[in-house]
Design a protein that fits this description.
The complex is a heterodimer. Chain A is of the alpha+beta class. Chain A has a domain at about 60-210 and about 220-290. Chain A has helices at about 5-20, 60-65, 250-255, 265-270, 275-290; strands spanning about 65-80, 85-100, 105-110, 115, 120-125, 135-140, 150-160, 165-170, 175-180, 180-190, 195-200, 205, 220-225, 245, 310. In chain A, the strands form 4 sheets. In chain A, strands 1, 2, 3, 6, 7, 8 and 14 form a 7-stranded antiparallel β-sheet that branches. In chain A, strands 4-5 form a two-stranded antiparallel ribbon. In chain A, β4 and β5 form a beta hairpin. In chain B, β15 (about 230) and β16 (about 235) form a beta hairpin. Chain B has a 6-stranded mixed β-sheet with strand order 1-22-21-24-25-19, covered by helices on one side. In chain B, strands 5, 6, 7, 10, 11 and 12 form a 6-stranded mixed β-sheet that branches. The longest helix of chain B is centred in the N-terminal third of the chain and has 14 residues, at about 55-70. Chain B has 4 helices and 25 strands. Chain B is mainly β. The chains are: A alpha+beta, B mainly beta. Chains A and B meet through β5, β10, β11 and β15 of A and β2, β3, β7, β8 and β9 of B.
């Protein structure tokens, strides 16, 4: 290599190292050609999916509501499968429908979020956590969905303070009615959101057993101590029925993630609040006035798409 | 004439000590604030939905630079395309943090969602997804966005909000980008149109939350002006009369020279340093007339405030110079350059209040 070539090389090196690398695209990862189709949720034959739509007006919220139900959150389970992903299953007992279609006495809401096989925890930014042993008024979707069957986070905790029934929204405001933007909320917070303060639950890692030539492999659950072992390792699980992760009720309660936050009762004394009855009345009137029907297909399964990838929009 | 106006202006000069409520929230695990484990946590961007030079990519970079004014816990990963059988996608069960525009139906109809993977107090990855049908250009800061159908110019604000979640911020009920974006709405701040700013930036409340998560005292000194006001739990436009129960003024407000008009002004401070500055009202028929100097001020107040955002009544007298058959926009801004202020381009905002000379006066 002569000095001229060395000079050219040096110039190239200078250009490469100073040419604004931060915004330069990395090599496009196009994946191998002919990859197998990505998984889709298994739905009954003939099932027609209804896409979830925007919900930034009250009419859009109500048009996507199949039922408004009242129930008590009695149990929480965690499951994982390849398509559904990590799910927090909120099990409501003593449930009854307040508007729209009827619900069973036990309603299970399979909200995305929870333990992964690698032992980590997945949460979704705009979805609230719900408090165990609390009564809720919940708006359920009539469209298909991926993340949550609750319409627009309309899940209000029903509390009784000084003999007065009140409703608290997921961010901790009192619900005072139903208006032009949907739920009308108090200016003051009367509660924290559920789950801001938590203690680490033991890490739960789930792995497949060694390959077998017979039968359907069942997930094997490995319970470990937080911070030890194969952190970061991603186990593979079968795409069949969701495997329930064996976390005890005591551990869930001890984690604080689903604990009912204290209420600022002194703040609430001077604040008016809707009751469940008055809220449902206001919602029903608003729906009638807008010629929107609360009802349709109650969709309690995450049938829209699998959790582990999202198609991006071509621009 | 100018001397007389300056005299009137000085007579109107008032000093306001404005308090501001802070309500930023963040999660804590085992007593430690939840934040990215490996900092800076590189966030990649999907080149299918956010191609080079696109408004969406620019909005994402703008959000990242805004965050990096306060903390370097997030970094630029790189642009990439993951194409699977002809379809671009982002994957959530990998070890990478991604940002992409997606169809609303794929995020349950929301404007944005962030999937966060944590190990107690450590954020391992965060995948930011924003509705692709939004507009990512500079927003009109004079109006609160109440509905966001396809095409609404709120994309940059949604990206910044979701990036805030990647930082570890939770929702706030204060005047903050991190306000719950559903029924509560989130605020814009004013930005000069030639600045490259998109009218979306972190407020004092957001910075308060970041400083608590990362354990520092915010020293990035920045004052901003907004045309939006927190009332109860909602954001409203500032074209209201605070002396008459926040009655909304007609648009445009028909007025005669000499009439006194009351409305609301909103200012904020990102740092914990108590800042003192002047705030003025001026009129201009040009929608992009920012900023103006002290000579154009119809009234001026002197403000002293610590971290946060605050709104207060502002008053001005309709000038005799108001031309007939012209609609004037009411601007609020800091008339003087502040040597310690880091972003001069967010110091003026066009309000929702517009004014027109009443026929016959």
């Amino acid at each position: 290599m002569d000095s001229h070539q060395l000079g050219v090389l040096a110039c190239c090196l200078v250009l490469v190292t100073t040419s604004g690398c931060r915004h330069t695209p990395v090599d496009a990862d196009t994946g191998p050609a002919g990859e197998p189709q990505r998984q889709e949720p298994v739905v009954p034959a003939g099932y027609i999916k209804i896409p979830p739509a925007p919900f930034d007006t009250p009419n859009q919220m109500l048009a996507q509501t199949a039922a408004i139900f009242h129930g008590k959150l009695k149990e929480i389970h965690f499951t994982y499968d390849l398509c559904g992903g990590p799910r927090t299953q909120y099990v409501f007992g003593d449930s009854s429908s307040l508007a729209g279609v009827a619900v069973a006495s036990t309603v299970t809401l399979k909200v995305l979020g929870g333990h992964t096989p690698a032992g980590t925890w997945v949460s979704v930014s705009e979805l609230p956590q719900l408090a165990l042993d609390s009564e809720y008024v919940v708006f359920l979707r009539n469209t298909d969905w991926t993340y949550s069957p609750i319409v627009s986070n309309l899940a209000f905790r029903q509390e009784t303070v000084g003999g007065r029934q009140v409703l608290v929204d997921p961010d901790g405001h009192l619900v005072t009615g139903w208006g032009d933007d949907g739920p009308v909320l108090s200016a003051e917070l009367v509660s924290e959101p559920v789950g801001l303060h938590r203690r680490n639950m033991r890490t739960v890692r789930t792995a497949l057993p060694p390959q077998s030539t017979a039968g359907t492999p069942e997930p094997r659950t490995v319970v470990g101590v937080a911070g030890a072992g194969n952190a970061g390792q991603r186990a593979i699980m079968p795409a069949t029925a969701a495997a329930e992760l064996p976390i005890t009720d005591e551990e869930i309660r001890a984690s604080g993630m689903f604990a009912r936050p204290a209420l600022a009762e002194a703040t609430m004394v001077t604040q008016r609040s809707a009751t469940t009855k008055s809220l449902i009345s206001a919602v029903t009137v608003a729906a009638e006035r807008a010629n929107v029907r609360i009802g349709g297909r109650l969709t309690l399964e995450p049938n829209w798409k699998c959790w582990n990838s999202t198609p991006t929009a071509r621009r | 004439m100018r001397t007389a106006r300056t005299l009137v202006m000085l007579l109107l000069l008032t000093t306001l000590d404005v308090p501001a409520a802070l309500a930023a929230a963040w999660s804590v695990c085992d007593g430690v604030a939840v934040k990215p484990k490996y900092q800076p946590m590189g966030i990649f961007w999907d080149l299918c939905s956010m191609p080079d030079g696109s408004p969406a990519q620019r909005a994402f970079f703008s959000a990242m630079y805004e965050v990096r004014n306060y903390t370097h816990s997030l970094g630029f990963g790189g642009g990439y395309k993951r194409i699977h059988n002809g379809q671009c996608l982002i994957e959530h069960d990998n070890d990478r943090s991604d940002t992409a525009l997606v169809n609303r139906a794929d995020i349950d109809g929301a404007l944005g969602l962030t999937l966060i993977e944590t190990d107690c107090e450590d954020i391992i990855t965060a995948d930011v997804m924003v509705a692709a049908d939004l507009n990512f250009a500079r927003a009109d800061e004079s109006r609160v966005i109440r509905q966001a159908p396809a095409g609404t110019t709120v994309g940059a604000l949604v990206i910044l909000h979701e990036v805030g979640h990647a930082l570890g911020l939770e929702h706030s009920s204060s005047f903050a980008v991190m306000r719950n974006g559903l029924s509560a709405r989130a605020p814009f701040v004013g930005m000069s149109p030639d600045s490259g700013g998109l009218s979306s930036e972190l407020t004092g409340d957001d910075v308060f939350g970041i400083s608590r998560i990362y354990g520092f005292t915010p020293t990035y000194r920045n004052i901003y002006v907004s045309s939006q006001t927190l009332r109860g739990n909602g954001l409203i436009d500032n074209n209201v009369n605070p002396l008459n129960g926040d009655l909304v003024w007609s648009d445009p407000l028909m007025a005669c020279p000499g009439n006194v008009v009351n409305f609301l002004a909103t200012v904020g401070n990102n740092s914990t340093t108590v800042e003192s500055f002047d705030l003025s009202v001026y009129l201009d028929p040009d929608v992009n007339a920012y900023p103006h100097g002290l000579a154009d001020a119809l009234s001026t107040v002197s403000v002293s405030m610590g971290q946060g955002t605050s709104s207060f009544p502002m008053q001005f007298t309709v000038p005799a110079s108001l031309a007939a058959n012209k609609t004037y926009h009411v601007f609020v801004g800091t008339p003087n350059s502040l040597l310690t202020d880091r972003k001069g381009y967010d110091n003026s905002a066009r309000s929702a209040l517009r004014i027109r000379r009443k026929p016959g006066c």
